[in-house]
Records
---
Amino acid sequence: MCGIVGYIGKKEAYPVILEGLKRLEYRGYDSAGIVLYDGENLKLSKTKGKVLDLENKFAEEKSTNGSVGIGHTRWATHGIPNDVNSHPHYSNSGDLVIVHNGIIENYASIKQELLKRGYTFTSDTDTEVLINLIEDVKKNEKVKLGKAVQIALNQVVGAYAIAVFDKNKPNEIVVAKLGSPLAIGVGDGEFFIASDATPFLEYTKKAIYLEDEEMAIVRLKKGIKIRKIKDDSLVDPYIQELQLNLEQIVKGGYDHFMLKEIHEQPVAIKDTYRGRLLVKEGIIRMAGIDDNLERILNANRIIVIACGTSWHAGLVSEYIFEDLARIPVEVEYASEFRYRNPVITEKDVVIAISQSGETADTLAAIKLAKSKGAFVFGVCNVVGSSIARETHAGAYTHAGPEIGVASTKAFTTQITVLTLIALKLAKEKGTISKSEFQHHLQELELIPDKVEKALLQDEHIKKVAETYKDAKNCLYLGRGYNFPVALEGALKLKEISYIHAEGYPAAEMKHGPIALIDEQMPVFVIATKKGHYEKVVSNIEEIKSRSGKIIGIVTEGDVDVKNLADHVIEVPETIESLTPLLTTIPLQLLSYHIAVMLDKNVDQPRNLAKSVTVE
Ligand code: AGP
C-alpha cells in the first residue's frame, strides 16, 4: 500500500517527512517523493526507487527549506513504477499538489472530461486526474481548497487517503479518507499527517484517526476542522492517546505480519474486485480480458503455470474454469513445465500466477510459452514486476504488500481474480445462464463479510491448535473445489510450523493414505455442505473407525460432521465455487497459532524466501 506523510508546524518539514517515509517502508513501495513549501515556492522531488534515492536527489538539489510539506511512498496500482507516475502530483496551474493512497475507479471518465476542458496530464495515474478535478472545481466554483476537495470527492468512486496543499494558502493542508487509512498527529503548535502513526509517534502520541468519508482542514493557527464529505456536517475531533509502540503499529497491532495479512483479507478481496465486479450493472469489467477476449475464447485450452500457494490458486481455477466456462484447463508446476518439453501452440492461453511477480521458474515458463506462440496472461500482486512486464496482458490482485513469507491474502485475492475471469468467460460463452451469472456476482460481493465472519472463529481455532500443536504428521482432505484448499492448508502448516503435512483428495484415502491413520494422526477434513458432502462424511466415518483424530471445516450449523468429528470449525455458507475463499481461512489461522505455540519464526520461516528468484 502507499504511504503518506505530511507536516505543518515550526520545524523544518523535510527531515520529519523523510524519516517518516522511512518508517512507512514496511508497507512496500516502488517510488517516493516529497514536496516542500519554502515560503514562496513549491519544491518537489520524486523518483522511482527507494526513499534513499529520494534523499540523494534532494541532496543534489540542495533545497530542503520549508516548514510545511507532504511526502509519499507509492505502491503502484495505475501506471508502472517510474519517476513521472510517482507522487506528489501537481495540478496544471502548479498551485495545487496532492499525494494519494487508494484507487479512483472512475478516473478515466473524469480524465476524458478534463481533457475536453483543456487539462493536460504528464502521468498515467488516477491521482493526477484527482488533483486536476479539484483544481477545476476550485476555479469554476470559485471556492477555497477545502470546499473544492469536498465537491470533487463527491464526484469520485473508489478508495482514497489524500493530502492536498495549495501554495496560495500555505497555512493549511487538506486531508480526506475513504477506504485507506489516515491519521493526524496533534503536536504542540504543529500537526503531522500519515497513513499510520509510525512517522509521528516520536513527536506526539496524540492522534486523530479520520473515519471513512471524512475530511479535515489542518490549519497551523486555527487547528483542525473535520467535516463529513457527503453533507459538510461538522465532526468533533476525537484525540486518542496512543498506547502502541512502533513495532506494534507497523504490524497493525498484530503480533506478526502473517496474522495481520490473514485479517486484511476482507479488505484485500474487496479491493481486488473493486471496479471490476459491477453487480448492479450485472457485468464484470476487466480490461486485460476485454482487450483479448477473442483470443482467449478461441483457445484450445488454458494452461495455468505457478508455484507453491499460487499453484494451489491455479488448481482452484481449474475447477472454476471447467465447471463454469467449460474451458479445458491444465495446471502445471512452472518448474516442471519449463523443462519437460511441453506441447504448446499459439492456440493455447497461459495464465501465470505469482504474488511477487519475480518467481524465477514462473518467469522462465512464461518465456517458454511465449516463444511457442502462446498468449500469456498474468495474475500478479506487484505492479511493474518482472512477470507483470513479461506477460501479454494481466490483472493485478490488489492485496497490498504481503510481507509474511507464508502467502495468505495473495491466495484469496488470486482466486478472486480467477473467479472474475472465469465468470466473465462463462457469460461470454453462454455456459451459465444470466440468472446463474448474476447469482455468482451477488455471492462474490458478499464474500468479504463472510470472510470477516470466518475470522471470528479465531479464539476457537486457537483452542483446536493447542490440541494438535504437538502432532508429528497431519493429513488434510478435501473434495472438488476444496481439494486445492487441502493442499494449501498442508503447505501452510509445513512451512511455518515445520510439522509434516500432506493434502489429499478425500476419496484417495482408500488408495493408500488410510494406512497412516491412527490416534496420532490429526486429519483436517473440509466438509462443507456444498460439494459432495455425503461422500466426505463417509470418508470421515472411515477415518473415525480407525481411531483417526478428525477436525472438520464445516458449514455453519452442520450437525452430521459435528457428531463424528473431534472438533469442527464453522465457515459461513456460500455457493460451491466460492467455498475455497472461506474454507482456507480456518486453515490459515490453525497453522499460524500452531507455529506461534511452537515458538517458530512465523513471518520468516527457516530455509524460505518470500520470493524465490533463483531456480
Ligand atoms: C507460499 O506460502 C509460499 N510463500 C510459496 O509457496 C509461494 O507461494 C511460491 O514461492 C510462489 O511465489 P509467487 O506467488 O510470488 O510466485
Note: The chain has a mean pLDDT of 94.
---
Amino acid sequence: MNDKSPRDKSQRDKNQSEQTANQAWGGRFAAGPAAIMQEINASIGFDRKLWRQDIRGSLAHAAMLAQQGIIGADDESAIRTGLAQIQAEIEAGGFVFDAALEDIHMNIEARLIERIGEAGKRLHTARSRNDQVATDFRLYVRDAIDGLDGQMLGLMRALAERAEIHAADPMPGFTHLQTAQPVTFGHHLLAYVEMLARDRGRFADARARLNQCPLGSAALAGTPFPIDRNATAAALGFDRPTANSLDAVSDRDFALEFLSAASICAMHLSRFAEEIVLWCSAPYRFVTLSDRFTTGSSIMPQKRNPDAAELVRAKIGRILGSFVGLLMVMKGLPLAYAKDTQEDKEPVFDAADALTLSLAAMEGMVRDLTPNLVRMRELAGSGFSTATDLADWLVRVLKLPFRSAHHVTGRLVAKAEARSVGLADLSLAEMQAEEAGITADIFSFLTVEASLASRTSFGGTAPGNVRAAARNWIEALS
Ligand code: ARG
C-alpha cells in the first residue's frame, strides 16, 4: 500500500475499538484491550516525542540487517524510503498517532507496513521494543545533553562578558545575607560561571557513560541472528554496544544521571534567580530588568515583577521531582525489562524542557539587566564592610596576633556604631584610644577600593584578578 495521505479517522477509530486484537502482538489474543487498559498502557501521548530517534534507530538497524544478509537490499531500500516518507508526514503534521498502537515504535512500524507492505514487516527482525526504546531514549537524552550544553555555554559567555565589564565595580559581598566585605560585581557573576562549568562537566560525564548502544540486546537475551552490533552502535554515534543484554534493556541510570545533573544545574540557576529577585526589590535596587523580562500587576499599576526570575527559581521543584520520581520507579525493579520503565520518559522530557527554558530565560536576563552601580558602590562601603581590612592592617603593620586585632577592631566598630558613623569617620585619637600604635596610614586602607585591590590571593576579588579570570573564560568559551 502506497497511500500518501494520513490514515483516516474511521480506520483509527476501528483500531481503538475494544473488539480488535493488537495488530503487532495480538496473534494469541481474541479480543482487544479494555478501554482503561489501553489508556494506562499507551505511551504514544508522550513518547511521540521520540519519533526522530526512533526513525534514526530503525534506519541503522535496517542497514545493518541488509549488510548482514538478514534482510534483502530491496527490503532495506523500501524501508529507507518508507521511513523518509513517514518522517516527512510527521514533520508536516499529517501523521496520525494512534493510541491503539500503544507507542511511537508501533505507530511508526504500523505506518511503515501500511506504506511499503512486506518489507516493513521485516524491520523488527532481531529487535524488540525493549532494546529499541532503550536505544531511542539514550539518543534522546544524549541530544538533550548536547542542546543544554550549548545553552550553558551561552549563559556562561553572557556572564563572562558582563563580568569583564564590571571587573572593578564594587558591590557588597554577603555572608548570612549580612554585609561582609566588598567584592566586585564581575567577581560575583563569575562565581556562576564556575558553577555552570561544573554543571557542564556533570552532563559530559553522564553523556560519556550513556554513550553505549543497547540495540541488538533484543527483548532481554540477545538474538540468534548474525547481527553486527558494532555497526549499529557506530551508525548511531555510540562509542560501543552495551555489553550485557539484561542490563541494556532494563536500566535507566543514564536518565537518572541526566536528571541528577539537571537538578544540580537547576539548583544553581535557582540561587542566581533568587539573587535577581532580591536585587530587583526596592530595598536592594542593585539591578533593573527591562520590559522584556518583567510583568505588570493587574491591580497595582506601579509594579514591575521579575516573574521570569521567580519561575527559574521555582523550576528546581519539578526537575528534582522528576529525578526523585524516576529513582522511585526504578527502585526494586527485577531484571530485565518491565513496563514500569515506560514511566521514565515524562520526567526526563519535563525536566529537559524546564531546564532548557530556564537557561534561555537566565541568559536573557543576564543580557537584559542594568546594574545600578552607584547603589551597589554605596552599599559596598556600608555596614563596616572594611572592618576586616582594619584588623588585617593591625596584624600586618603592628604585628598584632589576629585574635587581638579582631578584638580591637570589634571595639572600634562598636564605637562607630554608637555614633552612627562608619569606621573611617572615627578620628585618629578615637582609634588610638583602643590601640595606641594606630597611625593615620590606616585610613587609606578603609576604603572600598583599597579593600578590593588588596584581595589579590588566587581566586580573590581584586579587580585585576577578576579581569584576568573574565578574559580567560571569554577566550575559553569562544
Ligand atoms: N512503550 C514501551 C516503553 O516505553 C516500549 C517497550 C515495550 N516493550 C514491551 N515489551 N511491552 O517502555
Note: Residues 43, 47, 103, 129-130, 133, 337, 339, 341-342 surround arginine (CB under 6 Å).
